[in-house]
Amino acid sequence: MTTKHDDIIEAAKILLWEKGYDATSPRAIQELSNAGQGSFYHHFKTKKDLAAKTMEVVVDERIAEFDEIFGESGPVKERIKRFLLEPRDVLKGCRIGRMVWDSAIGEDDLRRPIQKFFQHLQSQMVAALEQALAAGEIETDIPPEQIATMVIASIQGALTLGRAMQDPAWYDRTIQGAVALVDSVIKPCR
After folding, report:
1. Which of 1, 150, 166, 168 has CB 3.0 to 4.6 Å from 90, enough for a Cys bridge?
2. Which residues does 18 contact at the CB level (< 8 Å), separation at least 6?
3. What are the residues facing 138 on neighbouring strands?
């Protein structure tokens, strides 16, 4: 059973993804969550407080999804490709990346969860690549940090292109290019 607090956060998750921080009003969140103004402000002092809490929830959910997709089993190259090829709602874009383009990114409370998300993805991929390198499973001339950053940037860029063009083919081409790059820069040891 959900509480009004949960309903408000769920409504904020939807609206922040669809409209972004700047275009999402407390009134719209109240309407979508069926929460009155008093209930809204009982749970959250300001729109920013709600957005910060919502971003923490979204980031924790997305990190859990990444951890499940990326996992710890299988060769690192296959794990990275599995993450790249994970189905995404291209025309809506990234729930996390969406917030980067709002003025809200200047707010520390709103930026911290976003940074946490990207740092988690980066650190997990780098650790897996370093472990595979140390174990002699792979070889590469590209530093693990650069590979991980390229993977993250490829997904974010692919989502931006797909959404901007309103055409998933732009996303697909970008991801296929990223997969080809991963194949070319991460080689099994001979």
Report:
1. 168
2. 92
3. 188
In whole angstroms, what is the distance from residue 108 CA to residue 127 CA? 27
pLDDT in tens, 132-182: 999 999 999 999 999 999 999 999 999 999 999 999 999 999 999 999 999
Distance CA 21, CA 15 (A): 8
d(CA 90, CA 175): 11
User: How far lies 38's CA from each of 30, 41, 59, 101, in Å?
Assistant: 10, 5, 27, 30
State how far the Cα of 5 lies from the Cα of 114, in Å rounded to an integer. Answer: 22
Instruction: In whole angstroms, give the CA distance from residue 127 to residue 137.
Output: 14
Tell me the pairing of strands 138-139 and 187-188: antiparallel
pLDDT per residue as tens digits for the range 146-157? 999 999 999 999
Q: Which two tokens stand for residue 75?
A: 């060769």
Go through the domains of the chain in sequence order and give each one's CATH number.
51-188 (1.10.357.10)
Q: Around 170, how many Cα atoms within 13 Å sit in the side-chain half-sphere?
A: 15
The predicted model scores a pTM of 0.92
Backbone angles phi, psi at 139, to 5 degrees: -140, 150
